[in-house]
Structure formats: C-alpha cells, structure tokens
Design goal:
430 residues; alpha/beta; 3 domains; 6-stranded mixed β-sheet; two-stranded antiparallel ribbon; 19 helices; 10 strands; globular
C-alpha cells in the first residue's frame, strides 16, 4: 500500500514538474533538429467537437507542448539507438561502424532504381541535342556534374541485408558511360573521389553527413572552376587556399544526419578539415551568368560564397521546381517563369545531382527545355488525337497510366510529347 501511494505521489510530482516547465520554460531545453511540424491550439467548433477531431487534435497539441518534451524525445531516441540500433530519422540507415547513410543512396548505388537502358539512352540523346542547340543558337554552355553519393563512396558500410539483391547496372554508371559516348559535357566527381579515397589527407565524405564534406566540396568547386576556364574560356576566378583548419567538431552540414537523430550522446566521428580561402579574380571582365538545376548538393557550393564569386547571379532551380534565391522570401516555382527565356539568358547551364538524378538527370529539365526549344505544340496535339482515336494504342496508354499512377490525360500528353520529340530527333539525324 505504501509503495502504491509513493508511486502515485511521484507521478503527481512529475506531472506538476512538466506543467510548470511548460508554463514557464524555467529550464532551457535544447530544441530538436530536422523537420519539426509547427504546433498550434486547434480551433474549437461545433462540427470539430461532434466529430471528435478537436479532442484528437488537442490531445496531440498537449503531447507536442509537454514540458521537457524535447529531452524526453532525445532520451527515447537514445534508448532505441543504443539498445536496438534504431535511428529515429526518416529513411536513415545505420551502416557498419555507425556510419549514417540515407537509404535512397544505398538503393541507388545497388541499382534498385535503375531506369533502364532505353530510358537513359533517350535522355542522353536529348541531352546531347540540347547541349548542341544551346551552344549553336544562344552560345549557352551546358555541363552535368555527377556528384558523389555515399553508397558508391562507402560500399563497405552498407548492411548485408541490402546486398542480397544488388543489380548489375546503376543509373550513375550507365549515364556516365552514355554521356561519354555521346559527347555530353560532364564531370564525374564520383570516380574522382573514389580515386582519392585512400590517399586524401582529409575526409572527403563525412561519417555522419549526407553530402560531401566541406573540404570535399571545396576541392570539387576548384576543379569545376578550372574546367570552365579551360573548356569554355570563361572568366572564372581562382581559389587560393590560405590555410586548412582540422577540427574535432563538425561544422556546417558535415553532421547533418547525426544532428537529426536527436540523441543525448552524439555519435563520434574523425576530425574534419575546413579550408580558409580567398578568390583571385579578373575584375576587368564581366562574370558569366549561370543557372544550376538539381539537388541539395548545390548548397555546399552556394553558402561558402563560391557561386556568388564565380557568377553574376545565383539562380538555382531545386529539383527543377523551386526557384532560388526568390523562394527564400516567398515560394516561387519554375512554372511561374518564362522557362525558355530564363535558360537562354544564361552563359552556362549546370545540372548537379547525386545518383544521376535517380534515373532522370535534371529532374525533367532536359525534356522540358528540349520541348520548349524544339517541339511543335500543334504536333503534340495531333499525336494526342491519334492516340485517342486508335483503340489499341489508347489501351496500351491506359495500362501505362495505371502502372505510373497518373491520369490517362497526363499519360496521353506524355506519350504525345515523346512522339513529337522522337520525330524531331529522327529528322535531325537525317
């Protein structure tokens, strides 16, 4: 009986402590890293009360605003991680040696998401045609950057359970092969980093980071600068490294996955290198304009100031959808732009992505740009009409729409665009 009373008193004390902390915030609790949904008091209405949605939402609100909640979350995460090896971060895998890696990088490096030779052949063919078209008609240079991915760079950390279904080809490997054969301008950072992996003085890919290291991105952009000067004759500054600071504590995004695990005791990692540098530029000549299209690897080039010092603008289309820097202030999509005019106003277009864009380099940019520059909208409409008026063809398109999880109208349009593109490509070959 005494034990039960004592337990009851302890629970009451805890509830009071949580309530006081929630109300006063007397003791500072470190916030959680990663995406944390904003919480607000749900609106009470007659309908929400009668349907029970208010009660459910208010219960969630109480849980989300509990005193010491972030500390309790970290405790829970630490127990799961330390005892069971479970990371509480979206699609993050704990590799061998406690290396952290995104599951999508593992799957891409093992060929799980291989788009198929025919699809990649088609995109590379369009890529080469787009490269030539931009060069010839507007003197816009075109370049693809295949940046490193952790699965390819650290195959030894991948857990055994993923290796059972390894595929013979990956999007990255086949894209590089086809781009080289077709004459598409590209830099293969994956291959370069692998060559330096055992000889580099400093870490190129951090243990608890999702992107290349700060040091890795610095030498990568330096090589790109050299490429642009030599290959295209552009007025690009040089990077002069003044010193390199080796730090036991990760800076910037070198521990971005580790932080999102929200553990009490952070994972250990080897010292990381941070170059201090300045730019040597020819200020008598104008800087070129550039458009980057791709994924988050761009930010490792943007935040240290490389993009600003290399180019007269800093335009970036994130996944060929969100327009930066405008989206920093208010959301802006590429659908709101004069797409082709923006492209033709540049001196350089760079596609930057890991894992070869998971089978679609440019995330639709190549197809969209080529269509905008070349395809006849009336011809697309004619193909749409032909598909709908040909029962066997329409049935195949219906099956394809179901497989792709899109509407019939969207699939009809995609197939019509494809046919128009192929018609242009065939006439170009002749």
């Amino acid at each position: 009986m005494i034990a039960k009373k004592l337990l009851f008193v302890m629970v009451l004390i805890l509830l009071c402590v949580f309530a006081v902390q929630k109300k006063t915030g007397l003791i500072h609790s470190k916030g959680l890293e990663g995406f944390v949904p904003k919480d607000s008091v749900p609106l009470l209405t007659k309908n929400s009360w009668m349907e029970g949605t208010f009660q459910s939402a208010y219960s969630t609100h109480i849980n989300n605003t509990l005193g010491f909640r972030t500390d309790l979350v970290r405790l829970y995460n630490q127990i799961d991680f330390s005892l069971f090896g479970v990371p509480h971060a979206n699609k993050i895998v704990i590799g061998k040696g406690n290396y952290l890696i995104a599951q999508q990088y593992i799957e891409a490096s093992l060929g799980y998401d291989f788009a198929g030779k025919a699809e990649i052949d088609r995109i590379v063919e369009l890529m080469k045609a787009l490269q030539d078209k931009l060069e010839q008609t507007a003197k816009v240079h075109f370049l693809v950057l295949f940046v490193p991915d952790k699965g390819t760079f650290y195959p030894e950390i991948i857990p055994q359970r993923f290796l059972k279904t390894k595929q013979p080809l990956t999007n990255y490997a086949y894209y590089v092969e086809r781009c080289k054969a077709a004459g598409v301008n590209f830099i293969d950072y994956n291959a370069w980093f692998l060559k330096m992996k055992d000889t580099s003085r400093y870490i190129l890919y951090p243990k608890t980071g999702i992107h290349w290291s700060t040091y890795g991105s610095t030498i990568a952009i330096d090589s790109m600068m050299n490429y642009l000067r030599i290959r295209f004759g552009m007025n690009i500054p040089r990077v002069a490294i003044d010193s390199i600071i080796v730090s036991p504590k990760a800076r910037y995004e070198d521990d971005d996955i580790g932080r999102t695990l929200n553990l009490i005791k952070p994972l250990s990692y080897p010292p990381l290198a941070y170059p201090a540098f300045h730019f040597v530029a020819d200020t008598t000549k104008p800087k070129p304009r550039a458009l980057f299209v791709g994924d988050s690897f761009y930010w490792q080039l943007y935040y240290p100031g490389f993009i600003t010092n290399m180019f007269s603008n800093n335009e970036f289309w994130y996944y060929n959808k969100d327009v930066y820097p405008e989206t920093f202030n208010a959301p802006k999509s590429t659908s709101q732009l004069n797409y082709i005019q923006e492209i033709l106003s540049q001196d350089l277009v760079v596609l930057i992505q890991t894992n070869a864009g998971y089978g679609n380099v440019g995330y639709g940019f190549v197809q969209q740009a080529w269509q905008g520059l070349n395809s006849d909208r009336d011809r697309v409409k004619e193909f749409e009409k032909s598909i709908r008026n040909t029962p066997d063809w329409l049935e195949k398109v219906k099956q394809k729409a179901a497989k792709n999880g899109i509407s019939l109208d969207e699939q009809v349009h995609r197939d019509a665009v494809f046919m128009a593109e192929q018609e242009i490509m065939n006439s170009k070959k002749k």
